[in-house]
Write a structure and sequence with these properties.
Number of strands: 11
Helix content: 10-25%
CATH class: Alpha Beta
Low-confidence stretches: 1-9
Oligomer: single chain
CATH architecture: 2-Layer Sandwich
Distance between the termini: 25 Å
Mean pLDDT: 91
CATH superfamily: Pseudouridine synthase
Number of domains: 1
Largest sheet: 11 strands, mixed
Order of helices and strands: EEHEEHEEEEEHEEH
Radius of gyration: 18 Å
Strand content: 25-35%
Number of helices: 4
């Protein structure tokens, strides 16, 4: 991922905000938390946003509730209090949230709707996961449902409902069937995207508010991209 792609992320695309939560639309190419690259992570951008908007003195607390892969985009939840962080962590751990992803994959001969079940093994040295049809040593079961929203000339737009949360699960499971996500060279895509992104987007998120105890449902607009627009309509 090109480091200069981070420069455009100083202004947040805020999807939901109150005293307990901050939900933003992550651009592709941005880290959630800092790593050895030294690139500016989303959590630091969000802290700066809160500090400046509310004129907060000192350090800003912002808890990372979950993560998205760097080249993906979509809805990301941060907790603004320690109480909210604990409660949200429990929700995600117990898989009480609902997350729907959209993916643009190579190929047009996909089933209209299906469930994928694989056994996955993570290779930490490669930062990659492998999906197998049968259980193998050190594997974990991975299940997702997908339906085809639209078929274009060379690509298909899928909506994906995860039932397990394995490392690179969507990317690996789709690639195992020969349907690599557009731009995802690591998992067999025919070419990269110009900006280093992949066409995987955390589209919808539903969760229980950690304090109000009300269900919040968030939809994250797709990146401004000709292919996404062809699939879902410009500005959707």
């Amino acid at each position: 991922m090109k480091k200069n792609s981070i420069k455009a992320t100083q202004s947040l695309d805020v999807l939901y905000e109150d005293n307990h939560l901050l939900i933003v639309n992550k651009p592709p190419g941005v880290l959630i938390q800092g790593d050895k690259t030294g690139d500016l992570p989303l959590v630091d951008i969000a802290k700066k946003y809160i500090k400046e908007k509310y004129n907060k003195p000192g350090d800003v607390f912002l808890g990372v509730v979950h993560r998205l892969d760097r080249p993906t985009s979509g809805a990301v939840v941060f907790a603004r209090t320690s109480k909210a962080l604990i409660r949200l962590n429990e929700q995600f751990k117990r898989r009480e949230t609902q997350k729907l992803y959209w993916a643009m994959v190579e190929g047009t001969d996909l089933p209209k709707e299906t469930r994928l079940t694989h056994w996955m093994v993570r290779n930490t040295k490669q930062n990659k996961s492998y999906a197998y049809a049968k259980k193998v040593a050190n594997s974990k079961e991975a299940i997702l449902d997908f339906k085809c929203l639209k078929t274009l000339e060379r690509y298909s737009c899928l909506e994906i409902n995860l039932h397990t949360g394995r490392h690179h699960q969507i990317r690996a499971q789709l690639a195992a069937l020969g349907y690599s996500i557009k731009g995802d060279l690591k998992y067999g895509a025919s070419r990269s995207n110009a900006n280093g992104s992949i066409h995987l987007h955390a589209r919808k998120l539903s969760l229980m508010h950690p304090v109000k105890k009300e269900v919040i449902s968030i939809t994250a607009p797709t990146p401004k991209d000709a292919l996404w627009n062809a699939c879902v309509g410009e500005g959707s």
